[in-house]
From TrEMBL:
One of its GO terms (molecular function) is endopeptidase activity. Coiled coil: none annotated. Pfam families: Rce1-like (PF02517). Residues 129-215 form the CAAX prenyl protease 2/Lysostaphin resistance protein A-like domain. Keywords: Hydrolase, Membrane, Metalloprotease, Protease, Transmembrane, Transmembrane helix. The keyword Transmembrane helix applies. GO terms for biological process: CAAX-box protein maturation; proteolysis. It comes from the Bacteria. The chain crosses the membrane at residues 12-36, 42-63, 84-110, 130-149, 158-176, 205-225, 245-275, 296-317. Signal peptide: none annotated. InterPro entries: CAAX_protease, Rce1/LyrA-like_dom. This is CPBP family intramembrane metalloprotease. It comes from Eubacterium ramulus.
Length: 320
């Protein structure tokens, strides 16, 4: 199989993952509206509609399609606790930088188009039980996403060299998030997780890092925001705002401690990144090519073009 056919198979597999996720979500939503319309607005329904099609249908089909490509067993190495902590700090730093870039790009697009591209992640996560956030975002998402975007993908693309495998893993991971707000930090985190997997050959390290990032950025903030009853705040009334702050002092303090802790970790991550970036080890692959040839083979094929177009559709739908 030549390089373009190889990457076309990769692109088409992940394109089908996007299509199946959207299609099954639509069919389940339609079915639910017919048999149990009263359940359509429940937070647990939103979680199930988002996760069941992806985890039970789309990802298994994508993984099955990728089995047609030869895979390679990576060398296995241990990651020391200190290395794991430093990597987590780097993840927090990259998450902050990616979030800033994503918000800036979204603001520019909103200014140019007049669209409302606000992304209230905190309000979204604070809806419903935070234990659903724990189950889906902290447990299931890291396991399933690391399987499909790291192991399934990198075990097959590593023959083109570490750099190609890392970039492709990060790019597909970022595009699959489907919006500008999350794309940049998801791309950065995806590259970090990919590099860790390549160097260790073990998913337990990338899954645990992914879980920690989602725990800090999702579950803990979700739990505290729900205690604050965030969605009910009327910030146009300063007195009600102050009263709400005092009535939920514990949750406010928890959010402040969480944010300060993450800022400290982010600053430490910047230092660790600056120190370690020149020490990164990039191994060549059996089929590695010069950059322009590699880019042409990777993206100049029908399967990858379909995947990228599906990503564009997700981005556009998110903006509408």
């Amino acid at each position: 199989m030549d390089d373009k056919r190889f990457f076309s198979r990769v692109g088409f597999s992940y394109f089908m993952m996007v299509v199946l996720t959207v299609a099954v979500q639509f069919l389940l939503s339609l079915l639910l509206s017919l048999i149990a319309p009263q359940a359509a607005g429940l937070p647990v329904t939103s979680w199930l509609l988002a996760m069941v099609p992806l985890y039970l249908v789309a990802i298994p089909v994508c993984a099955k399609m990728m089995q047609a490509l030869p895979n390679m067993q990576l060398y296995r190495n241990e990651m020391r606790p200190g290395q794991w902590i430093r990597t987590l700090c780097i993840c927090i730093f990259v998450m902050y930088v990616g979030n800033i870039i994503g918000n800036a790009v979204s603001a520019l697009i909103a200014q140019g188009t007049g669209l409302d591209l606000s992304f209230e992640l905190g309000e979204l996560l604070s809806q419903g039980s935070p234990w659903f956030t724990l189950l889906f975002s902290v447990v299931l998402a890291p396991v399933m996403e690391e399987l499909i975007f790291r192991k399934v993908l990198i075990d097959r693309t590593i023959v083109y060299g570490d750099k190609a495998a890392v970039v492709l893993s990060g790019l597909l991971f970022g595009v699959f998030h489907g919006n500008f707000h999350q794309f940049f930090y998801a791309f950065g985190l995806g590259c970090i997780f990919a590099y860790v997997y390549i160097r260790t050959g073990k998913l337990k390290y990338t899954i645990s890092l992914h879980m920690a990032v989602n725990m800090l950025g999702g579950f803990l903030s979700s739990l505290l925001l729900q205690q604050l009853n965030y969605s009910a705040w009327d910030t146009s009334d300063p007195y009600a705002y102050i009263d709400m702050m005092f009535n939920h002092a514990g949750a406010v303090l928890g959010l402040v401690i969480l944010e300060i802790s993450m800022i400290i970790m982010g600053i430490a991550g910047l230092i660790f990144f600056a120190v370690s970036v020149k020490k990164l080890e990039w191994r060549s692959g059996e089929y590695e090519r010069p950059f322009h040839e590699m880019a042409g083979a990777m993206f100049g094929n029908p399967g990858m073009i379909l995947f990228l177009l599906s990503g564009v559709c997700l981005f556009v739908l998110d903006m509408l």
